[in-house]
Automatic annotation (TrEMBL):
Gene: ilvB
Protein name in UniProt: Acetolactate synthase
Pathway(s) the chain acts in: Amino-acid biosynthesis; L-isoleucine biosynthesis; L-isoleucine from 2-oxobutanoate: step 1/4; Amino-acid biosynthesis; L-valine biosynthesis; L-valine from pyruvate: step 1/4
InterPro entries reported in the protein's UniProt record: Acetolactate_synth_lsu, AHAS_TPP, DHS-like_NAD/FAD-binding_dom, THDP-binding, Thiamin_PyroP_enz_cen_dom, Thiamin_PyroP_enz_TPP-bd_dom, TPP_enz, TPP_enzyme_TPP-bd
Classification lineage: Bacteria, Bacillati, Actinomycetota, Actinomycetes, Bifidobacteriales
GO cellular component: acetolactate synthase complex
GO biological process entries: isoleucine biosynthetic process; L-valine biosynthetic process
Length: 634
């Protein structure tokens, strides 16, 4: 029998048992709403995103001109959540948003799930109806604690004003400690309007919550021993390494062991691409060198990654000859998809600080394996299979070329954000990442509409760093209303819209796997032709193009530009880089039949990766990286 959710259980308690009489009299007397705002200030929160509504109005009434944090009004609750994500990823701090009950809270479910999948620390404060109305189907009542229960790190239903400072202290700590994630704090209107006595700091009550950060036992020496026996090692680095700010340590480990670095989508840039040991992203749309290295390795060092299906392809064919070291702060990830030979539970940075000296001691005794044959094989893949693309046949721009131009003309400290789709993969493949924590994208959930609000959050957190959003016309339209929020908050986001007039990634799959049946993927927002190539007209003479993205940008007070040719594209990018007082949108008209290569079909082995149509390097290749002799370097 299914157990009741916390809100269902609460609604079954007789209402007269809830006595709001305060027994605590130490501290400053105030309302729960005042305490909530004061708690955020005392936690050091600098920026908050949200949308007001009836059940959270007491809190909004306490957000005033002299409030210590900056509040940013978004235009949709989902956007508030994604903006908080972008802010958290940019700053390394907890993202905070405040929304109302019912639909306001349920609109937050998508960013909560997104943050949960990508380990982003959020505190989501939602309004809730009064205690006496819970369970009555009151106006805008929704069990948000129950609805989000499977996708939050923790959640609270607050019924007493006195609990608010402690709960927010705990929520902030839980969100940002251990494996980061979203925490929901559902605050009843009763708690907001009730009186309490405020004191700071608060003592947390978190029995049993004690994340392991330091490796225990002999696992470090076991890991060092595997390194000493490996002639084809690979460092497989995931988003957990980014959250742990472990980029410099990963570079140290790679330099010490001479192992190549491959990354997941969220970990792009954890070590700058200029480092010769960085092979790029692996998996479904990864580089041939990265995917090939993992498939042929004899030691897979998994650092803050979780063996996602987009990385592994067919799981039982993934890195088939490799012994595995798995470092992760979340013990639930260890052995979930791949059983490691050496499991190490702990914070990535803390573990690597202890592991590197252990490897140095081992090398002093045993020397370092000769990896020259391994690097010869890797360099052969890199030389034979570089990033490339097909040129358009219709005279439009190659979207890959546009991304490369954006990267080449960008400042070194640029923050990069994407929506979800083909443009996201091209950005991951072709941007030259120069700094860690400069990449924001929706990885695990793949949320279309993530891009613009996340870019706004990145602009707020970046404090003047340039922000480029690379988005698709389909993904962008899911949250385009946030141009208003960007304009009024002076968030100078630069938007590169790769406009192919279709849902590009869906169309790619329809082309490859569904007999070119383009069902429900033609958007008609960048061309004036219907599905059969027949010109469509409105009012007898006006071509249909809905929306006109340049006019849309201008309607929101932003700068709008359009580029059909390479010369126009270069000029638009140059102008956009010079504008820093308002958002800029460039409508790049790109080829709708462009595809993302390389590609591994869903469920296939990574050995079946296709570099370009008809070319399967890992099936055709005899490269192994095996050493000719077991020579060592001392």
């Amino acid at each position: 029998m299914a157990l009741p959710t916390p809100l269902q259980a609460f609604s079954a308690v007789p209402k007269d048992q809830h006595d709001e009489t305060q027994t605590i009299t130490d501290g400053e007397k105030m309302t729960g709403a005042q305490a909530l705002v004061r708690s955020l200030e005392d936690l050091g929160i600098e920026d908050v995103f949200g949308v007001p509504g009836g059940a959270i109005l007491p809190v909004y009434d306490e957000i005033k001109d002299d409030t210590k944090f900056h509040f940013m009004l978004m235009r949709h609750e989902q956007a508030a959540g994604h903006a908080a994500e972008g802010y958290a990823l940019t700053t390394g701090k907890v993202g905070v948003c405040i929304v109302t009950s019912g639909p306001g809270a349920t609109n937050m479910i998508t960013p909560i799930a997104d943050a949960n999948m990508d380990s982003v620390p959020l505190v989501v404060i939602t309004g809730q109806v009064g205690v006496n109305a819970i369970g009555t189907d009151a106006f805008q009542e929704a069990d948000i604690v129950g609805a989000t229960y499977p996708m939050v790190k923790h959640s609270y239903l607050v019924t007493s004003a006195q609990d608010i400072p402690r709960v927010l202290t705990e929520a902030y700590y839980v969100a940002n400690s251990g494996r980061p994630g979203p925490v929901v704090v559902d605050v009843t209107k009763t708690a907001q309007t009730g009186n309490m006595y405020y004191s700071w700091p608060q003592r947390m009550i978190l029995p049993g919550y004690n994340p392991t950060t330091k490796a225990h036992g002999h696992v470090l020496s076991d890991a060092a021993k595997l390194f000493s026996q490996s002639y084809r090692p690979v460092l497989y680095v995931g988003g957990g390494a980014v959250r742990s700010k472990a980029g410099e340590l990963i570079k140290q480990l790679a330099d010490l062991t001479d192992a190549p670095i491959v990354t997941t989508l969220p970990a792009r840039g954890v070590v700058p691409d200029s480092d010769p040991k960085v092979l790029g992203m692996l998996g479904m749309h990864g580089t041939i060198a990265a995917t090939g290295a993992v498939q042929r390795c004899d030691l897979l060092v998994t650092i803050g990654a979780r063996f996602d299906d987009r990385v592994t392809g067919k799981l039982d064919a993934f890195a088939p000859a490799a012994r595995v070291i798995h470092i992760d702060i979340d013990p639930a990830e260890i052995g979930k998809n791949r059983q490691p030979d050496v499991p190490i539970v702990g914070d990535v940075s803390t573990v690597l600080k202890d592991l590197i000296p252990e490897i140095e001691r081992s090398q002093a005794i045993h020397g370092r394996p000769n990896l020259k044959p391994w690097w010869n094989a890797i360099d052969e893949w890199r030389t034979k299979y570089p990033a490339t693309w097909e040129e358009p046949t219709d005279g439009s721009l190659a979207p890959q070329w546009v991304v490369r131009q954006l990267s080449d003309q960008a400042a070194d400290d640029t923050l990069w954000v994407t929506g979800v789709g083909q443009h996201q993969m091209w950005a991951a493949q072709l941007i030259d990442f120069k700094r860690p924590n400069s990449w924001m994208t929706s990885g695990g959930l793949g949320t279309m509409g993530y891009g613009l609000p996340a870019a706004i959050g990145a602009a707020v957190g970046g404090k003047g760093r340039p922000v480029w959003l690379i988005d698709g016309d389909g993904s962008f339209q899911m949250t385009s209303e946030e141009l208003a929020a960007a304009f009024f908050d002076h968030a100078p986001v630069k938007i590169a819209l790769l406009n192919n007039s279709v849902y590009g990634m869906v169309r790619q799959w329809q082309t490859l796997f569904y007999g070119q049946h383009y069902s429900a993927t033609n958007l008609l927002d960048g061309e004036a032709h219907g599905e059969e190539g027949v010109k469509l007209e409105a009012n007898g003479d006006m071509p249909v193009e809905v929306p006109d993205f340049v006019k849309l940008a201008e309607a929101y007070g932003c700068v709008g530009m359009r580029a059909f040719t390479k010369d126009e594209a270069i000029e638009c990018i140059k102008k956009a880089n010079e504008i820093n007082d308002r958002p800029v949108l460039i409508d790049f008209r790109v080829w709708k039949d462009a595809m993302v290569w390389p590609m591994v079909a869903a469920g296939a082995s990574n050995d079946d990766v296709t570099y370009m149509p008809g070319i399967k390097p890992l099936r055709d290749d005899t490269v192994t990286g095996e050493p000719a002799t077991a020579a060592s370097e001392n």
